[in-house]
Design a protein that fits this description.
It is a single chain. The chain is an alpha/beta fold and 385 residues long. It folds into two domains: 175 residues, Rossmann fold (3-Layer(aba) Sandwich), CATH 3.40.50.2000; 167 residues, Glycogen Phosphorylase B (Rossmann fold), CATH 3.40.50.
């Protein structure tokens, strides 16, 4: 049987990672249902809880005492990763296509693990794909260039990354397709009290963007000012929507602070944690969406909801540029938040242009999603090669 193995997935408590896996499985099944899928995951219990994977699809990656001892003794990451990945590489041979599904994982420090995985997979004769990636130009050094050129295929999810790779001579193995999460299905759930369909603004904030702010406290100050503005100057309700619930980067922590500040107005809804398809259902019912998590904003874009992204990296700008021809007005970098009115002013532009934006998304999104699904043809070509 044909085999696809995915790695770089850390668990479905990050509902963006969940959306990538679910979207990718849909893309694969659209091309070829006679495929065995395995996914290395750090948190298989989350993947099962949110119906991302079944138990047979999970390969557990877990650091333990022995792996830490090995790391201390040899002081080279390859020895540790060889030990930790022994289950994964049992499934990999020359008939396997390996997908690295970490999104923008190359942007967060030296990706030694992926360097090792691609090197070893190539040695075993497998085909390797860096799948749905975003990479900032400033992180690409000679070692990374060498690694990226060793992939059989790199599927970039936005044009800015595509152009960044070209600047570094990484051309022959690079293609451009939308993020696989654009293919994610949505599930409609009963709307909670005070969530009025079409009269509610969805808001997402994350600890991640707070870590990138230039002025301490500016992110939450801007979000608080924005919510106060909406309550004072419009008749919209507000739904606070978390999209990552891992303890070290839990959206619910800043969201709870916002909820507690404004809950007595009776116009604030706190959405409880649920799977990515249900979250997409809630987001689809919003009139507008202001989001920090990339895949929360993809849930909005893909359901034609006018969206303002509070971004911090190349992926937010690149996706917006591909959809609208520019990221100006569609993305406000968190690093630029200085005055507490900055987010209000960005929201005013969104509100004034929401009908035009919605029409544009309605016009372009069907073909955009079809393009995302067509990425499966690249996998099919390699698996049948």
């Amino acid at each position: 049987m044909k085999k696809i193995v995915m790695f770089g997935h850390f668990g479905s408590g990050n509902h963006g990672s969940e959306a990538i896996i679910k979207g990718t499985k849909k893309i694969i099944n659209n091309c070829d249902r006679n495929v065995s899928i395995k996914v290395e995951t750090r948190r298989p219990e989350e993947d099962i809880k949110y119906n991302t994977l079944n138990i047979d699809e999970c390969i557990k990656y877990k650091e333990n005492t022995l792996s830490k001892i090995i790391n201390k003794i040899f002081r080279h990451p390859d020895f540790n990763y060889r030990f930790l990945s022994r289950k994964l590489f049992k499934y990999i041979d020359s008939q396997t296509v390996c997908l690295s599904v970490g999104g923008d994982i190359y942007c967060y420090g030296v990706p030694y693990r992926l360097y090792y995985y691609t090197k070893r997979a190539n040695k075993k004769g497998a085909k390797t794909i860096l799948w749905g990636c975003s990479i900032s130009e400033e992180v690409i050094d000679k070692k990374m260039e060498e690694n990226l050129k060793k992939y059989t295929l790199i599927s970039t999810r936005e044009t800015l990354t595509y152009e960044n790779l070209k600047k570094h001579g990484i051309i022959d193995n690079v293609v451009l397709y939308p993020d696989p999460a654009f293919c994610l299905e949505k599930k409609d759930a009963k709307l909670p009290e005070n969530f009025i369909e079409g009269k509610t603004i969805g808001i997402n904030v994350s600890p991640m963007i707070i870590n990138y702010e230039k002025i301490e406290g500016s992110t939450m100050q801007n979000y608080e000012a924005l919510m106060q503005y909406i309550l004072d100057n419009t008749d919209y309700q507000i739904a606070l929507i978390p999209h990552v619930v891992w303890s070290h980067t839990d959206d619910r922590k800043p969201i709870k602070k916002l909820y507690d500040k404004f809950k007595d107005t009776g116009r604030i809804v706190l959405i409880e944690d649920c799977d990515s398809t249900t979250l997409k259902g809630y987001i689809s019912k919003c009139n507008m969406f202001i989001g920090a998590r990339t895949h929360a904003t993809i849930a909005a874009y893909s359901t034609c909801v006018p969206t303002l992204v509070v971004g911090y990296s190349v992926k937010a700008k690149g996706i917006a540029k591909d959809l609208f021809g520019t990221y100006e007005n569609y993305v406000i970098p968190v690093q630029t938040l200085e005055n507490k009115e900055d987010l209000i002013n960005a929201f005013k532009w969104l509100n004034n242009n929401k009908e035009e934006i919605k029409k544009h998304l309605t016009d372009v999104m069907p073909e955009y999603i079809k393009r995302a699904i067509r990425a499966g043809e690249e996998i099919s070509r390699l698996i049948n090669k």
